[in-house]
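At this stage, I put together a protein sequence along with its fold in C-alpha cell form, as given directly below:
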Amino acid sequence: MNTPSTTPSLDQLQRWMQAVITHPDGVAAGCGCAEACEQIEVTAPELERVLTRSQSLPAADRLAVYSHAYTARLIECLREEFPALVYTLEPELFDEFAIGYLERYPSRSYTLHHLGANFPQYLTETCPADEDPRWVALLLDLARLERLYSDVFDGPGSEGQTLMSVEHLARVAPEQLASARLVPAPDLRLIELRSPVHEYIRAVRRKQDPAPPEPAETFLAVHRRDYTVRRHALSRSQFVLLSALVSGETVGDVIGTWEESLAADASDLASSLQDWFRDWAAEGLFQRIDLPVA
C-alpha cells in the first residue's frame, strides 16, 4: 500500500479513485474504505496531498463531481431497464428506491447488465408491512418481468443455431416420443405472475397511458428470436406441462401426470398436445429432441 508521502503508480491511483468515487456513502467514506486504503492510505482532509485542487474546487469537491455523476448514471441505467416501474411509481419515487438499492447492492461488475439483478429482491426486502398487498404484487411483478426481459435479451441465445422444427417433431415415431426429452432453447424462460403486466409493460413502452391491470393469474413463456425478446401467454395447463418438459422430464411422464391431474378425455388431450407441441416448435422454444438410445 502507498501513503501520500510516496508516489503511487498510475494503476494504484486509478484503482484508488474508482473505490472512492463509486462508494455509495460518498467521497469521505470512500477514502476510508478497505478497497481504497489497499491502494493509497489517505483521509478526506488529506486529499490534496494526492489530488490537486482546481482554481474553484478543492480536491474533495472535484472527486464529488465524479461520484455524483457515477451515481446519476447508475440511476439512469435502472430507469432504462425498468420503464414500466418508473411509470407506475413516478420518477421521483423510483429514484428514491434506486438510491436505496444502490446503497444495499452496489455495482460490483464490469458490465451494467448485472446492475438491476437484485432489484426485485430489494423491493421485496423493503416493502412496508402495511402496504396494500395488491399494489405490492403489481410492483414486484413489474420488476420481475422487466428484469427477466433484460436477462433474456443479454443472455445466451439460439441465433445461428438449428432449432427443433415442426418437421423434426413430425418425424418422431409415436412409440419413441413417450421416452423422448425436449431440450429447451437456451433463452427460454417461464414465469408465473399475479397480473397481466406484460400487456401493461408493452403499453408503457409504446408511450401510451395504461391503467394498472387487475389481478389475474398469468403465465408466460419468454424467449429471444433474431435478437428480439418475445413473450407468449400460456394457460395454467400449458405452463405446468412446459415447466415439466423444461425440467428434463420425458414426454411420456409429463403427459401421464398431466392426464391424471386433469381427468380429461384422452382424445381431447392428445389433440391439445399436438397443437401445443406444434406451436412451441414453430416458435423455436426447443433446441432439439433427445430420443432414447436403442
Remarks:
- The CA atoms of residues 46 and 52 lie 11 Å apart.
- The two ends are 64 Å apart (CA to CA).
